[in-house]
Amino acid sequence: MTDLPDIKYPETSPFFEAVKAITSLRQHVELVREFRVLFYAQDQEPDKARREELYYRFVEMGQRLAGLCSEEDRTKFLLAIEIGRASNKKGFLAFKDEMVAVTDS
Fold first, then answer.
1. Residue 43 CA to chain centroid, in angstroms?
2. Cys-Cys with 74: which of 17, 46, 56, 69 at CB 3.0–4.6 Å?
3. Would you say the pTM of this structure is higher than 0.85?
4. What percentage of the chain's residues is helix, strand, coil (to nearest 5)?
């Protein structure tokens, strides 16, 4: 992992447990770990520009991981992302509102 923040995140979560259970991703442990750090880092980063950068890296990593999945596992992966968003709804909604405000200005 390069240029990732040193953050605190739960050792286990519904999101990460769902991702770890995806057969196609079991051989990509480091990528999954980086994806998890990016997921939690967005919410903890105080700098707006850096938070946006982390978000885009998270999206890119998600696309990369989805591409490594079988069709069935890709569906499970996308569901896992939604589980994560739902479990961090407050942080996700705050970030979304911030992004909308930036694009509206």
1. 10
2. 69
3. no
4. 75, 0, 25
